[in-house]
């Protein structure tokens, strides 16, 4: 038993090994069969393309490695594993080359593949190019290439043997090249725009400047739309479609065919294409083909549904005044039994109207509602009355003119002026209303009661007939009717009549409403008159017109109570008066009146402005704007003041009747004011006036006149008083001056009197002391004075002309001066010396003489001077009082004689002494540089007091004046 088991086991193992061997053997056999080397490799180029057809025999394998090389340079062009089924015992595959197959020789070989295993390569097959040595021709490929716009195309240039390529160009553009073989070069061209009619040139040049080239045509594949077929003669079909321009022309243009029947092209550039086919097929197929592709369209329909008639021919007309009959014929006799609908387009005076007529085999129509003496032009087209498809073609234009007849009756109205004059007006007949050449108008005025009339003829261009009611008295006192007849060559029109009022009556409505211009006209409405038996009349005219105004009017049927008046004569900025009349058996009655503007504008003229001052205010006044210049409804006035070319509004006056404005609160100065009128369209340019505001002068002038009057009355009063008191005034203000009387003979001829200082009368002021100079000193002093210059402040001899001689002896001033006085008298001379007067802040005072106090004292001098002054008689210079100073009161008691001197009479010399020069008048600490005051030989006082003496004198005069005024008012003496 064990041995049997071992034998069974070994037999099983042997059987397994045997089966494995058989499987491996079968698999190896199948692999060897699938990887057979492809044989019988053949090549075939497809004409007109760049495709190469490759076929071979290779067993049952379906996967192959394809290798394509450029033969000369051994460059791989294509290497790829492809799947090619076995068909009829051979494998066939088509390859498309980027370059034309003729550019260079190609080597092709194939091997079978099964996964990672591949067979041996087949034998190499070569497709010969034009660059082989046996073909030395210099050429470019491809020739006359048609390409789609935007596609890339490869061109190659084959140069001659032992030649090199210099350049390749498309037009003027230099192209980039690639070398394919020893003699072949290629380039890629992309045309992004269609070529022109003759294409675009591409060429190459070798190093010997030889040139060869080709032409490239870039366009589009065919495309057709709107393909439809119809009938024109009710038997054949005419097909239409729209083609798209492919930019390919000539033998490269698109070819069309319908139902495999070639159609002749009209013009390649025409978008609308058509083709005529005999008979009616009911279904059609359009095929469009060009070098870049093909496009198909189809259409189908019944004949009766696609009828489009031809145009009517040989038009004619039978013409009358108000209608015309139009006739025509058809080109095809089949139309005589076909139901048609025809459209007639009638044109007259630039306006076209369409009229439609229908009937079986329609060949004539009657046109009514035409106008006499009118030219018309018409065209006719027809279509199918049933199953209408499209209108047929228009006929040729046909023109004719209607006959003439009598004119239409003119439309008549009457206009009355305020002076019982007026005019009958009528609307001139248009050419259409005249119905022929117009000869004129005939106007007849007649009385309805007395059957009297007066006829006047007017030319065709007249539209008014004036009349005067005062001159119509010959027609009677009844109603006067005016009738107008228009006449042409065919006769007169029907008369149009209107009643004329016998006198002007003011029948105005209470209020005038405003009419609004909307949608090209004035819209009006009114209350309906129940008793109205005829039409309303709406009349309008320019509101600025006052006499014989040009009118326009329309008639409105009685049931209506609204109207919209429109006119091409309406102008912007013009105010129109619009009146509504109701006609009856009596002359027309005015019912309502409106005023309105087509368009309001700003006033065309400013107001006339004036400005004036009234008291402390400014009053602006202006005139109204004429109606013709308002150009709109005035809404008011704006008043401005001008501030540095800027207008400031100070008042708005909405009342248009206001013509004055008062400006208040302005101070004196110059102002400019502007007044602008405004409408709804805005303000006008404005009127400006200037005014100078001055202070009010009325009261000032009155005050001045009052002051002058009071002053004049006062002067009269003073003059009257002075006249009554003239003796007292003379005695008080102008007393008689006594003449000096001196002893001796003064009757001889007068001569100059030498005045020399007396030896005993020289008085010097030395440090505010009055010093008497002895005679011997006086002689020395006089000698020194004569030696010194004349402009010193020492005494100088002056010459006086003696006017009065006093016979009485002059009393000596001092006891020891008698001899000197007698000597002076005997010589009939008066010695006067000028002593320098020292100016100081204090008054002069008497001081003891340090030189000779025992011989002459101030008290003695005062007594002598007092006795001298008290003595009456001869020459006595006036002694002016001066205010005693504190020093004077302390040193000299002789001031008590001054009042006596003031009250004494005698000659009072005028005080008119001045300094020699202003510069010498100032204080110098010494004597004054001017001449001294004159002193008399019999006086110890200065004749012309200074300083405080003047002040004291003024005080005395002031007191004297006050006393005089008191005496004047209180005295009663004349």
TrEMBL record:
Chain segments carrying region Disordered: 777-798, 809-828, 839-974
Subcellular location, record wording: Membrane
Pfam families to which the protein is assigned, alphabetical: LIF-R_Ig-like (PF21177), LIFR_D4 (PF25552)
PROSITE patterns assigned: FN3 (PS50853)
Alphabetic keyword roster: Glycoprotein, Membrane, Receptor, Repeat, Signal, Transmembrane, Transmembrane helix
Domain Fibronectin type-III positions: 406-508, 602-700
InterPro entries per UniProt: FN3_dom (IPR003961), FN3_sf (IPR036116), Ig-like_fold (IPR013783), LIF-R-like_Ig-like (IPR048497), Type1_Cytokine_Rcpt_Type2 (IPR052672)
Domain of life: Eukaryota
Repressor recorded as keyword: no
Biased composition (Polar residues): 839-866, 892-903, 957-974
Protein known as: LIF receptor subunit alpha a
Organism: Takifugu rubripes
Gene that this polypeptide is encoded by: lifra
């Amino acid at each position: 038993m064990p041995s049997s088991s071992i034998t069974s086991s070994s037999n099983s193992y042997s059987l397994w090994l045997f089966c494995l061997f058989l499987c491996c053997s079968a698999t190896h056999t199948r692999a060897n069969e699938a990887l057979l080397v492809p044989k019988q490799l053949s090549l075939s180029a497809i004409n007109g393309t760049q495709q190469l057809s490759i076929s071979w025999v290779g067993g049952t394998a379906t996967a192959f490695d394809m290798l394509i090389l450029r033969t000369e340079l051994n460059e791989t062009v294509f290497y790829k594993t492809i799947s090619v089924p076995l068909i009829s015992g051979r494998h066939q595959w088509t390859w498309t080359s980027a370059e034309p197959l003729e550019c260079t020789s190609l080597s092709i070989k194939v091997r079978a593949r099964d996964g990672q295993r591949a067979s041996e390569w087949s034998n190499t097959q070569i497709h010969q190019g034009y660059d082989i040595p046996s073909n030395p021709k210099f050429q470019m490929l491809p020739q006359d290439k048609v390409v789609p716009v935007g596609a890339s195309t490869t061109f190659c240039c084959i140069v001659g043997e032992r030649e090199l390529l210099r350049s390749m160009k498309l037009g003027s553009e230099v192209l980039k090249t690639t070398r394919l073989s020893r003699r072949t070069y290629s380039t890629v061209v992309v045309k992004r725009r269609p070529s022109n009619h003759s294409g675009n040139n591409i060429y190459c040049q070798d190093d010997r400047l030889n040139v060869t080239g080709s032409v490239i045509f870039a366009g589009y594949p065919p495309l057709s739309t709107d393909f439809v077929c119809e009938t024109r003669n009710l038997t054949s079909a005419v097909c239409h479609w729209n083609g798209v321009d492919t930019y390919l022309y000539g033998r490269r243009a698109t070819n069309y065919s319908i139902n495999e029947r070639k159609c002749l092209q009209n013009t390649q550039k025409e978008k609308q294409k058509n083709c005529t086919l005999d008979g009616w097929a009911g279904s059609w197929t359009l095929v469009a083909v060009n070098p870049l592709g093909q496009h198909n369209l189809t259409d189908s329909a019944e004949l009766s549904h696609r009828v489009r008639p031809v145009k009517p021919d040989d038009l004619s007309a039978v013409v009358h005044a108000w209608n015309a009959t139009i006739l025509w014929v058809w080109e095809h006799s089949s139309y005589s039994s076909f139901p048609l609908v025809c459209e007639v387009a009638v044109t007259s005076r630039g306006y076209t109207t369409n009229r439609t007529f229908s009937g079986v085999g329609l060949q004539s129509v009657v046109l009514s509602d035409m106008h006499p003496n009118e030219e018309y032009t018409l065209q006719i087209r027809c279509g199918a009355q049933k199953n209408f498809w499209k209108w047929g073609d228009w006929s040729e234009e046909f023109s004719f003119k209607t006959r003439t007849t009598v004119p239409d009756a003119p439309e008549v109205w009457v206009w009355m002026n305020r002076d019982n004059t007026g005019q009958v007006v009528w609307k001139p007949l248009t050419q259409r209303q005249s119905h022929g050449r117009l000869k004129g108008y005939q106007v007849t005025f007649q009385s309805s009661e007395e059957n009297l009339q007066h006829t006047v003829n007017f030319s065709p261009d007249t539209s008014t007939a004036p009349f005067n009611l005062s001159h119509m008295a010959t027609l009677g006192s009844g109603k006067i009717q005016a009738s107008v007849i228009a006449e042409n060559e065919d006769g007169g029109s029907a008369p149009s009549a209107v009643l004329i009022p016998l006198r002007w009556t003011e029948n105005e409505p209470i209020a005038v409403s405003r009419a609004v211009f909307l949608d090209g006209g004035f819209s009006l409405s009114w209350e309906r008159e129940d008793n109205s038996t005829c039409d309303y009349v709406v009349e309008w005219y320019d509101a600025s017109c006052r006499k014989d105004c040009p009118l326009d009017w329309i008639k409105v049927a009685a049931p209506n109570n609204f109207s919209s008046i429109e006119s091409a004569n309406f102008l912007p900025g013009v105010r129109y008066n619009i009146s509504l009349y109701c006609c009856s058996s009596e002359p027309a009655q005015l019912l309502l009146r409106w005023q309105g503007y087509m368009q309001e504008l700003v006033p065309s003229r400013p107001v006339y402005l004036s400005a004036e001052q009234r008291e402390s205010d400014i009053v602006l006044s202006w005139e109204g704007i004429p109606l013709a210049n308002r150009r709109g409804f005035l809404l008011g006035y704006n008043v401005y003041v001008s501030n540095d070319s800027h207008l400031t509004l100070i008042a708005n006056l909405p009342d248009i009747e206001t013509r004055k404005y008062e400006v208040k609160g302005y101070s004196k100065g110059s102002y400019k004011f502007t007044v602008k009128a405004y409408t709804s369209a805005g303000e006008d340019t404005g009127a400006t006036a200037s005014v100078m505001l001055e202070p009010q002068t009325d009261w000032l002038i009155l005050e001045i006149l009052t002051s002058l009057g009071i002053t004049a009355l006062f002067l009269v009063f003073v003059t009257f008083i002075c006249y009554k008191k003239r003796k007292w005034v003379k005695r008080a203000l102008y007393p008689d001056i006594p003449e000096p009387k001196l002893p001796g003979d003064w009757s001889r001829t007068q001569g100059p009197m030498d005045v020399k200082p007396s030896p005993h009368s020289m008085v010097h002021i030395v440090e505010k002391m009055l010093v008497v100079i002895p005679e011997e000193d006086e002689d020395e002093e006089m000698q020194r004075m004569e030696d010194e210059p004349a402009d010193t402040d020492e005494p100088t001899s002056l010459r006086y002309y003696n006017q009065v001689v006093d016979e009485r002896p002059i009393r000596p001033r001092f006891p020891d001066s008698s001899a000197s006085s007698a000597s002076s008298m005997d010589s009939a001379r008066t010695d006067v010396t000028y002593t320098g007067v020292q100016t100081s802040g204090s008054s002069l005072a008497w001081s003891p003489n340090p030189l000779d106090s025992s011989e002459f004292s101030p008290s003695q001098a005062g007594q002598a001077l007092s006795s001298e002054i008290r003595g009456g008689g001869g020459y006595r210079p006036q002694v002016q009082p001066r205010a005693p100073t504190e020093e004077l009161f302390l040193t000299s008691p002789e001031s008590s004689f001054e009042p006596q001197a003031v009250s004494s009479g005698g000659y009072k010399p005028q005080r008119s002494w001045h300094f020699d020069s202003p510069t010498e008048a100032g204080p110098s600490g010494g004597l004054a540089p001017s001449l001294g005051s004159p002193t008399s030989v019999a006086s110890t006082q200065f004749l012309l007091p200074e300083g405080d003496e003047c002040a004291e004198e003024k005080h005395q005069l002031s007191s004297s004046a006050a006393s005089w005024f008191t005496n004047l008012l209180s005295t009663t003496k004349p």
